[in-house]
Design a protein that fits this description.
- It is a single chain.
- It contains twelve helices and two strands; from the N terminus they run E-H-E-H-H-H-H-H-H-H-H-H-H-H.
- Helix 1 runs antiparallel to helix 11.
- By secondary structure, the protein is mainly α.
- Helix 1 links the parallel strand 1 and strand 2.
- The chain is globular, with a radius of gyration of 19 Å.
- The longest helix is centred in the middle third of the chain and has 17 residues.
- It starts with 5 loop residues before the first strand and ends with a helix.
- Strands 1-2 form a two-stranded parallel ribbon.
């Protein structure tokens, strides 16, 4: 029986560890070629001409070369919003949250989930997600959505704020709260094992920031 060797194009070693843990390939080969970036850039060019469906296809190809690349996953989420494909938005945002190891990325994908819940008419959950996003990295984008919801459904939001926290709502909805523990463990191990002083310092700063 022929053994399948998965081809993987990582951006850095941290992604290799995340890929190994979450995808668990039996055999894989890291390629020096940046094939994922090639298809990602092609997708961006298609979007510039409003070719949203074709762009999505290209992002999907890019993801096959690197399934844990957060920039590709973010592009798919943005693309899904433009195509009003809410289930795809939810699925990829939730998947991306598992791989996040920075505050900025956590906040970004919580905003994408907030958009999903807003579009399926669950304003309280959307509000909680935008609030929770700001707890990781405060942005004007989240502030605008929060202000919109406070104007659109003031009584619902006031009742929510008076009785529950954003984290309470995420827990009730089964939504991941904060970084995934295995991703944090991978980042911690990178801090311990990295020999390059500059890179070790970057990993340490990221770890300290995300493990609040």
């Amino acid at each position: 029986m022929e053994i399948e060797v998965v081809k993987f194009c990582p951006n850095h070693m941290l992604e290799v560890q995340i890929f190994e843990y979450f995808k668990q390939p039996v055999f894989y080969q890291c390629l020096d070629k940046e094939l994922h970036k090639h298809f990602f850039e092609l997708g961006k060019k298609k979007e510039e001409k409003n070719g949203w469906k074709e762009a999505f296809r290209l992002y999907d190809v890019a993801l096959k070369w690197n399934p844990v690349d957060l920039e590709i996953l973010a592009a798919i989420c943005h693309n899904s919003i433009q195509r009003k494909d809410w289930n795809t938005l939810k699925n990829y945002a939730e998947e991306a949250l598992r791989y996040c190891y920075t505050n900025v990325d956590l906040a970004r994908f919580y905003r994408y989930l907030g958009c999903y819940y807003l579009e399926i008419y669950q304003p309280v959950t959307a509000y909680a997600l935008y609030q929770y996003s700001n707890e990781w990295n405060h942005t004007k984008a989240a502030d605008m959505e929060i202000a919109y919801l406070e104007r659109a459904v003031p009584d619902l939001i006031k009742s929510f704020v008076a009785t529950r926290s954003s984290e309470d709502e995420l827990k009730a909805m089964g939504i991941q709260r904060g970084p995934e523990k295995h991703t944090v463990a991978i980042l911690k191990q990178a801090v311990i094992e990295e020999s390059n002083i500059e890179l070790k310092s970057i990993y340490k700063e990221m770890y300290d920031s995300i493990c609040r």
